[in-house]
Amino acid sequence: MNSFSFSASLNSNKSGLKIFVLLLFAFAFALPVGAQTSATSGVYAIKGAKIFTLAGPPIENGTVVIHDGKIAAVGANIDVPEGAQVIDASGLEVYPGMFDAADQMGLEEVSAVKATMDTEETGEFNPDVTAATAFNADSAHVDVTRADGITEVLTVPGSLSGGFGGGGSVIGGNASAVNLGGWNINDMVIERRAAMELTWPSIATGSFDLTTMSFHQLPFDEATKQYHQKVDGLTDLLDKARHYAQAMQSAATDFPRDLKLEALVPVVQGKEPLLVVANSARDIRNAVEYCQKQDLHMILAGGTEAWKDVDLLKQDNVPVIIGPVLSMAQAEDDPYDADYAMPGQLYAAGVKIAFGSFNTSMARRLSQYAGTAVGYGLPHDEALKAVTVNAAQMLGIDDLGTIEPGKIANIVVTDGDLLELRTHVKYLFIQGQPTSLDNKQLELYERFSKRPKLQSQQ
Amino acid sequence: MRTHKTHAIRLFALLAALALLPLAARAQDDSGVTLIKNATVITITHGVIEHGSVLIRDGKIADVGANVQAPAGAKVIDASGMYLMPGIVDCHTHIAVDGDVNEGSISVSSMVNIKDVLNPYDINMYHELAGGVVIGNVLHGSANPIGGQTIVIKFKYGSTPAELPFPDAIPGIKFALGENVKHSNFGGPVPRYPETRMGVEETIRNAFTRAKQYQKDWADYNQRKAAGEQNLIPPRRDLQLEPLVEVLEGKRYIHCHSYVSDEILMLIRLAKEEGFTVRTFQHVLEGYKVADEMVAAGSSGSTFSDWWAYKMEAYEAIPYNAAAMTRRGVIVSVNSDDPEEARHLNQEAAKSMRYGDLNENEALRLVTLNPAIQLGIDNHVGSIEVGKDADLIIYNHDPLSVYAVVQKTIIDGKVYFDRNEDIANRAALAKEKQDLLAKEKNAGKPAPKAEENQNNGAKPGKKPKKGKTAPSDTPQLTSAEIGGAR
């Protein structure tokens, strides 16, 4: 069913058009996303809004035209094409949809229930697995998250805990960039192999075992030994991958296919970024030095203590996907606001930053993380970039994250500052399609709001 | 080497914590009369006063208004462009506890008391002050259907365990329902009763059945004693049942960890049968489904802003919960249950404007007056009114904005957190840490030649064993060297 096949004429009586479009949208947004048209049809114009293109200064009273899933035009004096469905966004604000630069969307439903978890494979090195493969397009988290303006995510296999807790895999697999709207993963995926997840091995002397609810202590020497074993294993694997790449390029055919090495070829060739999860200052330094020596295209993920050595990241030009900003300082004598202030400090030092939720049910806090960082020193426009275009740039996805002609039309229309807590998302476009704001939580709220008032007790 | 390092790190952490103390300690001497002027004063109960002032005398709010003048000799804080609001009350915290918060070995652990294990040096208290939180309902954990006794404290970081408790606040007891008490997501090889929500009900019912018998035994004894009977043997004291008798007599509040609607209804039903009231349902993530029943039972709800899906019983949690319960007439607060979450309860309250469209004052009430009401301390705190405790926060922006940063936090008229001072102290603290590190490093170096032989081949860097005479270069720290702490 195509509910958008009829068109609105530009020359209609203005107020009539307004009502018509409102009705159209009331209908459109009541539909689940699955009931919408494919990504290739439909021309839309969002009119009269303040547009934060993030490619220049905000445009007052501007118009965005969307055509075939892409942004066709943006500006203050743009003609609305004939037949376009017009959204009157007077008094509203338009932003690129937000990009959660690290979470486990689609891989995790209820974290305590193992059957709903596809986040992490067993074994140390799993470069051959890919997040998009296990992405549950019908996850309740997808609808809940996009309703707050997050239009795409990097969903990351592995533990994402970055050494706090130890254990787990070293290479978690390929993280996938995914749009949060579509019938299934085939419609939704932006880049299956957007980055390779690597949890930097930590010298972990203490760990907490959730199955027995007990702490385990390891002697430092033993922990160090285990650390070196893991790093040596990694080095060995990367060496083999380089040889494997040479073999592939040499057009030789007499070598056995190795899926893990094959998966690492784009990584050792620097084509696929390595998303290195590390949080303690020591782990970050070890990881940065290692990746430089190995000539790998590193993105630091997590980076809780990156503020302790900002120069290191600047020198090596390592971008950072910053873990949940609302986190407690690691050491008792760290500045109380270490995590809140770090994004501003990294930016000021010239380090490229993006925000990630490193979670699934908390993904919608992304704007809160960015906003808090603004309170503690990050410029507002940089915070906006760090929840949109910066992540796309880090991952080499060039056609996403700003409102410019040719970009994927992932757009959020709000009634206020995108980063403010009280702001409501009014309209959402994913791949140029009006996308429903309905979700499990809104449905429950509305259903129980209608419950008749209990008249008498017992 | 490793041992050495660990000791060193612990020592530094301790010293750093101590070094923060003078800030609070100095604040203690700062009593008397203070005027905070030119602020946007958010009173909670009497609207917002632009360019308003609050006069503090002897730790209480002495005057509030647009035209309050500073008495002679008063300290004046110019809060131009700033926002002043009542200190945040967190209805669910586990900080300032020395060690574990769960006595998880037994299903009814009402004999243990958080009051006995308060730690005034918990750095988290300083962290919460930096987030504007001044009062916490310090709860036992949720391991048991009936958990330990609980206490309301003011976050007087660096004071003494005796100074922390909120004066005359009604004590509480933690109850818990659902997955945690039935060990759904963890647990050892030996199962513990209860393992179902059915068993949880019977565990609580059984405890109250025993408590009522105990109550009756004492009543009988006291009656016979009063009648002049001689040679009576008093009932044996039962420390497990005493707190439950207090619950039945309305002298102790129940704060009950709960998630799904059926278990909330269960406890409401059971409470009615047994003749007690649940003061607060904590978490109460499905409270929006049974809000009317909660109101009818005289129970309130203290919830999270937007946490969900971390376990099965949290899968129908909705961020609209606070607003939905509020609209149905429940007294609602938003709590932290976590030392980090507590640092931005103002932000968490603001989310009820996005999810459920509460207005600004309703949103702020969720973390000020409403939790104060829930804890029975609203005559003293929770709003800016003459006569109430001078527990105040100064923000640089509207506290419901994500950009608001706490500048000062005041308890009983005394500044316990000052952002400028905190920042100003950082360089000195960092230097002190470096000095101590250097000292500790030197302490591990081999002693001068003459003494080296006496060491009998002891590895360099090895810490002298306890009881033995320390080498001369071991730092002998004096109180003067540890940041002026007393």
Outline the structure in words.
The complex is a heterodimer of chains A (458) and B (486). Chain A has 458 residues and is of the alpha/beta class. Chain A has helices at residues 14-30, 131-134, 140-146, 185-188, 220-249, 259-268, 281-293, 310-315, 338-348, 366-375, 380-386, 389-394, 440-449; strands spanning 43-51, 59-67, 70-75, 85-88, 93-96, 98-103, 150-155, 171-179, 189-199, 206-209, 214-217, 274-278, 298-302, 320-322, 353-355, 411-414, 425-430, 433-434. Chain A contains 13 helices and 18 strands. In chain A, strands 1, 2, 3, 4, 5, 16, 17 and 18 form an eight-stranded mixed β-sheet that branches. In chain A, strands 6-7-8-9-12-13-14-15 form an eight-stranded mixed β-sheet. In chain A, strands 10-11 form a two-stranded antiparallel ribbon. In chain A, strand 14 (320-322), helix 9 (338-348) and strand 15 form a beta-alpha-beta unit. Residues 1-40 of chain A have low confidence and may be disordered. Chain B contains twelve helices and 16 strands. Chain B has helices at 2-28, 123-129, 197-226, 242-248, 261-274, 291-296, 321-327, 345-354, 360-365, 369-374, 419-443, 449-452, and strands at 33-42, 48-57, 60-65, 75-78, 83-86, 88-93, 133-138, 146-154, 172-176, 253-258, 280-283, 300-303, 332-334, 392-395, 406-411, 414-418. In chain B, helix 3 crosses helix 4 (242-248). The model of chain B is unreliable at 1-29 and 450-486 (pLDDT under 50). The interface between A and B is large, with 54 and 60 residues.
